[in-house]
């Protein structure tokens, strides 16, 4: 790494309160990753907590980056209010990112405040997964390394006396009607407002293209997460007040009815106290937890425990953490100072000893997202004015709380060389390497789909969970989306029976099943079996996320950044290298699909389509609305009911078009031994009407058995 | 005034970043008004712009105040993040205020952020009229003198190691259901978070009761506003694109059909440019504005001009203000630095010369409230990071912009000894003396009613305007509320015809009138005539606002602070001394009314009710849902079509119960001569079955002629 200095001349001398800092320090952090620093940087930033080392080799292989502007065109202004950063923006650029945004996709022209919150109405930028990070289709990304509440003006401001660039001014109008019509594409810069900061670090991730930017970002963050392979199956969370007997019964239901399920999640009642948490098994509900976990394991179920991080006075963690917690309580519970390694270690050690060693395979880390109800009545989280022994304040702690919580829990598994797949309600930047899926209560299907796309710009994993539904159609559409996402999750925390037996909450809890429950169950089994078939392909996509930084789920604009038709396309996405998903919602019987350049195949009809055009599809409720790119081999496995360390996937290779290839990633699926090279690349090749399989690598077992080749032309 | 010092010992020593300030300075500002100051106070605060002197004599007459806590129990903590203020709160206190709140009434247990905004969803505290000021039914008010975005936790936080008071802790629960049920009445303090501040002034207004707190606040702010008497009539805003001919025609409609109207408001098209504003008559729409204003005046109409403060490059104000404006533009227009007297004077001088001297009697000051659309795309206002030559930043300017704008415009009229009644989209604390009514686009009738109550806790005036409606019932209910409010306003800025002729916008603009238009017109005439009858009573209520600080419109809890049934009663209010309004909304055919202690008469049925109980009323659509307190004389005038300086009100005194009295305030109605004593108190007395009228004061004319006495028993 080389360091050099550049003079960022402050061009706009404005008024007496402006403190001008004329020199910014530019540091090359990794190939194509630069940092501009000015003033006194904050101690508690997302990057300050990133312990993962950049994946240097992979970064080197990305080749040279390129910026469409000069680094010293990025202006930083420090004044008595805070820091203002201005980044050049040309008139045609499209912007994406700001973490797991919910209400918007293309952020050009918007004002965005990526602030952690559980119920982000009004599209202000509030989200479970805030990140002060955006990317441009011109091939670069800008990350403001702050955990303060920052505001981004994405090319929608105009300055007085602006001599810097061509500024396309707001049109205005002579009436409100005219005003609404004006395109408001003012300004030649993105402006970032970071009140309270006394200095700032700006990370610049170079392209040259959008996908490479995300690769650089993810690789710089330690590489994308590779979940335990069983995490790619089906997760089902049982009703909050289920006891050991009831969970056993539910487990039996899955196996008896041959419905795939890898993970059962327990909700609050497993603990003696849950708001706040005791982290102690409630023996009247779970009299023999050791036996329970073992029994479940023998039936192929992993157990995931719900909790949050607010520590009840009834918890054994209370006394050890009392002097390592914030000065405000939540539900009378401590807020651990996760910014202090000592506090995080106490929390982690207890969890390791008590649960992970017991066989608990993951946690659902709830309530770390500063609940919306906190807006009305602050009792769902701690105030921004909170103080913590480490010195972090409540505002910055809010932005980082989910990030630090998942880091704390993930660290347990990492140290034990045991992989996991976690659930977490909040995240932030540099979290790419954490195998933790974000989830939400907001439950608008359109938004859940959009968030799959936005997750790819965030280095985050998104789980569009399914609960109850208004109609069977709605339920099936949501299930399709869940199957085509990073985690297939049914969250029945308030449902007695699986929702496919009764979509209505009240009836479900009265055991009044639907008349056509068995038919819906059959359709769901079909969808979930497809999910199980897709695991090898998905697992390879996650390996590409880890080793190459390529988001496994991503917007089409990431692969086709020059195609204008993709700029605002917020309801189609790529899965892995060559599958395009176009999910439908309850309102739709059919939908319009845009297919970018190339040739594509409808997975269901096998019909061939030329790219660059719009088509209409009408998939059934028990089909998956996906297209396969020509030149692809789609390896689909014979569905298993769950993935065990011994599972051998029996693969059929579907060959779309000619001269095809694909890769499968092969390892034990449950340890980090792949980091030391214990994995194979299983290369599938279709040439001259013949399929070949070449295995390369150091993993000794083979988990994929190629059974068939099937040609689709 | 005496000054003294008190040691506010900081009791909670927390962590290394906390900067402790052990001494706060307490100053007695006026009888029952104290200020605690600590640290370096901000330059730009609401009080720093209050030029009005306290009404000392009236303040002296209020008698001694009383606080339920010791002044040095108010804790101020200054740290690197900003300032935190903690004010004692007991378990039974009820809190109100935070300016013109929309979504909530009793603020106890809520988190409120009184931040200026035009479309305040989610009840976060955002409002057109933010004020960092709350009052307690225990008889005191707390005003944080800041124009920063502050957050109030109204008794819903709990601290670790809290040794200070009895803290009722959050109940929590073992499930989310239990959690929702918990009452969350934690904490023995209101906590205020003021990020960015380096010091603070806390104003304490003493009681001993809730109404006296508001009297002190309003009197300290210079006394309540006394609008020009014609302002209490009916205001009608014409369609935005009406030309001179069309406005004349509309004026003729009112007079021909004997529908009262005092003010006609012009919308954007009167100007050559409006987004941003030129402040120049558009001669193709108004070829002879002087003639137009004169003609209207002769017909008894006052003309009000729509505008906002963002100055178009096409405006004669642009060059003079270019160096006295913020560094960001809005609709390509300047944002005048109203915090600089020189900028305000330029703006005012131009308006005086160009419009006020022409006879323009008021302005509608639009768009000064940081539009909601600004959340998505910032173009509807300036960014918080803006800088102004005076040194104020964009955040503080936003909070103060509407306040300074109305001060600027009001100052013109004040200097000319000419009264007015303005419209403004934003306000803040210490604005009691400004005769400017807030208005909104939000248009939820329930909220508009609640805002009438909240205006009384804010020293603000609220105008629940009527536009189109879904049903005639909705329209009539809204009209009833408008008649029973501080300003009766029909805002037809997008309606060709008066809405009572066609409630549907599309049909209205196609001149398709309703079949029963004439009947609805008759009903509206009846309601508006009642408004005109009420003017003498209302005018006296405003005189009480000015001279005694008593809010003319106020929640019942202000008059009955010990009555638990009033604590959350957010849809009934007092008008003046003895009229209780209980408006209905579209959904209601009847409603429940709570009548507090005493005896009350239904105005419509004349039925007598004992207080302390709930009753059901079912007023017709053309009646007003009001009750009159026993012991009252309600003086109602024979309705006039508009109020001129020569208007003599012919009064019938309605005597409710025995031993009654009432007062009317008598002056010229249009100048500030009353400040020099040129007014009369007309005292009405009913004793021993005989009515007497006693006039006291220095105003030479009599405007009220008492014609009749009518007894209701």
TrEMBL record, chains A, B:
Q: Give all residue intervals belonging to the DUF5110 domain.
A: 651-701
Which residue windows are coiled coil?
A: 503-530
| Gene Ontology MF terms | carbohydrate binding; hydrolase activity, hydrolyzing O-glycosyl compounds
One GO BP annotation here? Answer: carbohydrate metabolic process
The UniProt entry, under SUPFAM superfamilies, shows:
(Trans)glycosidases, Galactose mutarotase-like, Glycosyl hydrolase domain
Glycoside hydrolase family 31 TIM barrel domain: residues covered: 225-540
Task: Outline the extent of the Glycosyl hydrolase family 31 C-terminal domain.
Answer: 549-634
Q: Which UniProt keywords apply?
A: Coiled coil, Glycosidase, Hydrolase, Signal
Signal sequence extent: 1-22
- Enumerate the Pfam families for this protein: DUF5110, Glyco_hydro_31_2nd, Glyco_hydro_31_3rd
Which family would the database say this protein is a member of? Answer: Belongs to the glycosyl hydrolase 31 family.
Q: Which PANTHER family match?
A: ALPHA-GLUCOSIDASE (PTHR22762), ALPHA-XYLOSIDASE (PTHR22762:SF144)
Give the protein name, as stated in the record.
Answer: DUF5110 domain-containing protein
Please give the organism: Mucilaginibacter celer
Source lineage = Bacteria, Pseudomonadati, Bacteroidota, Sphingobacteriia, Sphingobacteriales
């Amino acid at each position: 790494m080389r360091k050099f200095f550049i003079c960022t001349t402050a061009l706009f001398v404005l008024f007496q309160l402006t403190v001008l800092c004329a020199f910014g320090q530019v540091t090359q952090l990794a190939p194509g990753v630069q940092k501009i620093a000015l003033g006194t940087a904050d101690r508690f930033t997302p990057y300050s907590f990133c312990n993962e080392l950049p994946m240097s080799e992979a970064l080197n292989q990305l080749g040279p980056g390129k910026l469409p502007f000069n680094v010293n065109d990025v202006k930083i202004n420090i004044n008595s209010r805070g820091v203002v950063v201005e980044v050049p923006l040309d008139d045609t650029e499209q912007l994406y990112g700001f973490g797991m945004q919910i209400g918007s996709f293309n952020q050009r022209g918007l004002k965005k405040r990526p602030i952690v919150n559980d119920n982000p109405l009004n599209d202000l930028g509030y989200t479970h997964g805030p990140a002060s990070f955006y990317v441009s289709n011109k091939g670069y990304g800008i990350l403001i390394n702050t955990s303060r509440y920052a505001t981004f003006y994405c090319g929608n401001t105009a300055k007085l006396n602006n001599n810097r660039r061509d500024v396309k001014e707001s049109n205005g109008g002579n009436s409100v009607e005219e005003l609404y019509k004006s395109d408001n594409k003012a300004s030649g810069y993105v402006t970032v407002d970071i009140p309270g900061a006394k200095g700032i670090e700006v990370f610049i991730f170079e392209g040259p293209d959008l996908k490479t930017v995300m690769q650089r970002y993810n690789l710089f963050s330690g590489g994308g997460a590779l979940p335990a392979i069983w995490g790619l199956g089906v997760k089902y969370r049982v009703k909050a007040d289920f006891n050991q007997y009831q969970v056993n019964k539910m487990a039996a239901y899955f196996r008896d009815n041959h419905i795939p399920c890898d993970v059962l999640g327990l909700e609050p009642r497993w603990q003696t106290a849950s708001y706040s948490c005791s982290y102690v098994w409630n023996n009247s509900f779970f009299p023999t937890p050791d036996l329970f976990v073992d029994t479940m394991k023998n039936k192929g179920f992993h157990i995931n425990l719900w909790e949050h991080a607010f520590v009840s006075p009834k918890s054994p963690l209370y006394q050890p953490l009392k002097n390592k917690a914030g000065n405000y309580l939540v539900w009378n519970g401590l807020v651990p100072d996760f910014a202090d390694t000592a506090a995080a270690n106490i929390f982690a050690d207890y969890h390791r000893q008590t649960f992970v060693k017991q066989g608990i395979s993951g946690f659902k880390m709830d309530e770390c997202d500063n609940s919306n109800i906190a807006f009305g009545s602050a009792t769902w989280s701690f105030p921004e004015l909170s103080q913590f022994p480490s010195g972090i304040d409540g505002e910055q702690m809010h932005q980082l709380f989910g990030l630090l919580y998942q880091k704390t829990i993930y660290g347990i598994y990492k140290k034990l060389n045991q992989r996991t797949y976690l659930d977490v309600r909040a995240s932030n930047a540099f979290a790419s390497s954490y195998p933790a899926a974000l989830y939400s209560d907001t439950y608008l299907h359109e938004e859940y789909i959009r968030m799959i796309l936005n997750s790819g710009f965030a280095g985050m994993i998104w789980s569009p969970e399914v609960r109850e539904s208004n109609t069977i159609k709605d339920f099936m559409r949501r299930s399709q989306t869940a199957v085509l996402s990073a985690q297939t999750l049914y969250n029945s925390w308030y449902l007695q029976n699986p929702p496919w037996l009764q979509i209505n909450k009240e009836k479900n809890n009265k055991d009044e099943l639907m008349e056509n429950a068995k038919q819906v169950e059959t359709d769901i089994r079909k969808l979930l079996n497809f999910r199980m078939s897709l695991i090898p392909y998905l697992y390879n996509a996650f390996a590409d996320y880890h080793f190459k930084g390529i988001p496994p789920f991503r917007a089409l604009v990431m692969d086709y950044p020059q195609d204008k038709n993709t700029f605002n396309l917020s309801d189609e996405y790529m899965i892995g290298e060559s599958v395009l998903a176009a999910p439908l919602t309850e309102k739709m019987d059919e939908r319009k699909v845009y297919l970018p350049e190339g040739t594509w195949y409808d997975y269901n009809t096998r019909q061939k389509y030329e790219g660059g055009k719009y088509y209409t599809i009408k998939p059934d409720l028990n089909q998956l609305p996906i297209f396969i790119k020509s030149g692809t081999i789609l390896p689909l496995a014979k569905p298993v009911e769950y993935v065990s360390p011994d599972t051998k996937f029996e693969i059929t290779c579907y060959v779309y078009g000619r001269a095809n290839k694909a890769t499968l990633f092969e390892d034990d699926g449950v340890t980090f031994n792949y980091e030391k090279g214990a994995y194979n690349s299983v290369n599938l090749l279709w040439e001259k009407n013949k399929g070949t399989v070449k295995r390369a690598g150091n993993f000794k077992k083979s988990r994929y058995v190629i059974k068939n080749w099937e040609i689709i032309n």
